């Protein structure tokens, strides 16, 4: 029997500081994951082997991060029907704009769910993977719901503090 997990693929080890936000969210929800550095361009055969093996072992969602040409998410989406989330990395002379376009502009029938450039996108990739897995896991769905409710309460507390500060001025 296989155990569900998320595979987090990075085009370079330099992507890890950004992708740590993804790993943190997955850990927060106790979602099992594997992380790997692999390249759509420099190690395409190894990438293909890993995706096929991960799928056979129970991977339910792939999260792929890359900068510049950012072909990793598209390459993975081309060889699996599992959901693929692309995280454009903020690097290079275009500060991630090229990575965003390379990730989001997929041909019809080969979707990549693309999140924002950089840290916010990496965080949202973790949340999106959790939401995808929560469709078939009621306890995870409740945990995601509870975390969202806690976040809303925190915003309310910040507003109350602001209103108190403004009232004293």
What does this structure look like?
The protein has helices at residues 16-28, 44-56, 72-77, 97-104, 119-134, 138-167, and strands at residues 5-10, 33-37, 59-66, 84-88, 113-114. With 169 residues, it is α/β, with parallel strands linked by helices. It has a five-stranded parallel beta sheet. α1 (16-28) packs parallel to α5 (119-134) and α5 crosses α6. The longest helix has 30 residues, at 138-167. It is globular and about 65 Å long. The termini are far apart. The model has no long low-confidence stretch (mean pLDDT 96).
Shape: globular
What fraction of the residues are assigned to beta strands by DSSP?
15-25%
Q: What integer is the average pLDDT? A: 96
Low-confidence stretches: none
Distance between the termini: 63 Å
Radius of gyration: 18 Å
Overall structural class, as computed from helix and strand content, comes to alpha/beta
- Secondary structure: helix percent: 40-55%
Strand order of the largest sheet: 2-1-3-4-5
Count of separate DSSP helical elements: 6
Question: How many extended strands?
Answer: 5
The biggest sheet amounts to: 5 strands, parallel
The H-and-E topology, N to C, reads as EHEHEHEHEHH
Sum up the structure in keywords:
169 residues, alpha/beta, five-stranded parallel sheet, 5 strands
Question: Would you kindly provide a brief summary of this structure?
Answer:
The protein is an alpha/beta fold and 169 residues long. It is 51% helix and 15% strand.
Topology readout:
Elements: E1 5-10, H1 16-28, E2 33-37, H2 44-56, E3 59-66, H3 72-77, E4 84-88, H4 97-104, E5 113-114, H5 119-134, H6 138-167
Parallel strand pairs: 1-2, 1-3, 3-4, 4-5
């Amino acid at each position: 029997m296989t155990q569900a997990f998320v595979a987090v693929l990075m085009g370079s080890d330099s992507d890890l500081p950004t992708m740590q936000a993804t790993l943190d969210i997955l850990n927060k929800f106790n979602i099992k994951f594997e992380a790997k550095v692999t390249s759509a361009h420099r190690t395409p055969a190894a990438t293909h082997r890993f995706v096929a093996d991960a799928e056979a072992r129970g991977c339910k969602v792939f999260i792929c991060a890359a900068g510049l040409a950012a072909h990793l998410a598209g390459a993975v989406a081309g060889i699996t029907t599992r959901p693929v989330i692309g995280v454009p990395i903020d690097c290079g002379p275009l500060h991630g704009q090229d990575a965003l376009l390379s990730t989001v502009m997929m041909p019809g029938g080969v979707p990549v769910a693309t999140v924002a450039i950089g840290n916010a996108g990496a965080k949202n990739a973790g949340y999106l993977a959790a939401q995808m897995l929560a469709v078939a896991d009621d306890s995870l769905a409740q945990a995601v719901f509870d975390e969202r409710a806690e976040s809303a309460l925190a915003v309310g507390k910040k507003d109350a503090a602001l209103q108190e500060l403004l009232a004293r001025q």
